[in-house]
Here is the input.
Amino acid sequence: MNSKYLTTIGLEVHVQLNSKTKIFCGCEIRFGAPPNSQVCPVCLGLPGVLPVLNHQAFRLGLRAVLALRGTPSKRIKFDRKNYYYPDLPKGYQISQYDCPLGQGGALEIETEGRLKKIRLTRAHLEEDAGKLMHDISAAASHVDLNRAGTPLLEIVSEPELETPEEAYQYLTHLKAIIKSIGVSECNMEKGHLRCDANVSVRKNASDLLGKKVEIKNLNSFKAVKAALQYEIKRQTEALEKGEAIPQETRLWDDLKQKTLSMRSKEEAHDYRYFPEPDLVPFFVTQEEIDRELASLPELPKEKAERFARDYGLTTYDAGLLTQSSGIADFFEDCASGFPGHKTIVNWVIGPISAYLNEASLEFEALKLAPETLIRLIKLVESGQLSFQTAKEKVFPEVLKTHRDPEEVMKEKGLAQVSDEGALDAWIAEAIQAHPKVVSDFKSGKETAAMFLVGQVMKKSRGTANPGKVQELMKKKLKELV
Amino acid sequence: MTPPPISNDSEAIGPPLADETGGGVSEFNLKHIASLARLHFEEKDLKVFESQVAGILKFVDELRKVNVDGVEPTSHPLPLTNVFREDEIKPSLNVEEFQKNSPQVRGRFFEVPKVIEDKS
Here is the structure.
């Protein structure tokens, strides 16, 4: 990035609150329900109906504000944000304008090895819009209002993020906190966490912020990073050419990996907010604040510090383990009965994380018992099973069938062979089958030995003890020279 | 969008009726507001409404002159606060029932004119 320019990024994150029903009516929130099956006169915006605030949505929002070190407003109210779009049945969204649920707060991120505090502007409650579908037919768009009225908490950061990586870090930390306090499942596929980004680029010399560009349609943290990278490059290039950057809303196209201007949104910013007359004001009581504070669990950052301290982990490892409370709990359960903490960490952030990423699963879905992993680790440590075989053959099978690792190992004949007699036989076979390689070795090509070791590993289907094979192979070859 | 200002209690509730970027109430642009609300008026009617709305706004401007220092703002006329419902599932409506009133449906969906994002 050209150091002549400074980048300023602010994020608006919409978190879906984990209540059973919608924010202003009793319709169930159920992902994947048949279209328009979870609707009633209130969320359909029929005339003459009254919204009533869901107490649980309010509590969850309050909980998030407190966990993010924000200040709950004493008195909150709701406002109508007016805009016309087919996914909004009432023609306005019930949101909060000047008396949001929470103000301020902060989040700490790690950037280039140091901690950086990102302050929050505010957090407010609002209802979600419905879902529009454009590909059912070419001539019309289609509306499903199941999502309309789902409770959201919009969390707005101060424009204090300076790189796409910092934005990514911010989102990762925010997600970890929100999830750990049970406010949202934070399932990205189900749209539980959505993000808009504001970004501006300006010359170092001037103090004024550049024109702000808002990017929408960011469906994953990866998309946020890519869109910001693209947008910073685009704006920098425009400034280089002496072009002005208009203040506008742009849409991220994940397929084309670029942002596109959304002209239609220009005048839509005129929302004509006014107080929602159908909802009374609310006072946030100290009693409710105290109740939420008392039930807040240990937050990811505190947990990471404790892990680093109590288990002797690096800050990096502790940070990774505490991104999900399921993983953190699993680690603690494992660590309580087994002193090889670093080995457990390596399994969790290695094979287990890789498996989760590949299968797009949350840790909880594995239903992996801590004792199972410990038994597997012990098989490796006692030399009965090689790490490679444990990782590639036994572990996937254990995850799939929930069987005992030793049983799987025995049944599949995967136990590590360290017995010299058995190994010698394989070695002799390999030497006999590859006379050319043996003569290479004789003429001084030391690496030829590794090829033969590989042959033995293949022959043994990975069960031969690789250290032992190397040792014996070298001995055998030296005898031949 | 720019986050709205957060009021402390001595400030007015809500923003002025005019657009966020525009000036005060006196610069109220009826045509613009009508187009945002998807309302269509004949030019001659617009003139009439404009003068009527201007009268109302002038009255509101008058009210703004009142000194309200130390007066708790009212965002709701009823003397009620903290009216909640518990998070309990209530039956939803039957799709056939509420779609009776819909001008156009397709299966379980509401059908609307094609909405195309204006990209460039």
Strands of chain B lie at 84-85, 105-106, 109-113. Chain B touches chain A through 57 residues (CB under 8 Å). The radius of gyration of chain B is 21 Å. The CA atoms of residues 29 and 113 of chain B lie 28 Å apart.
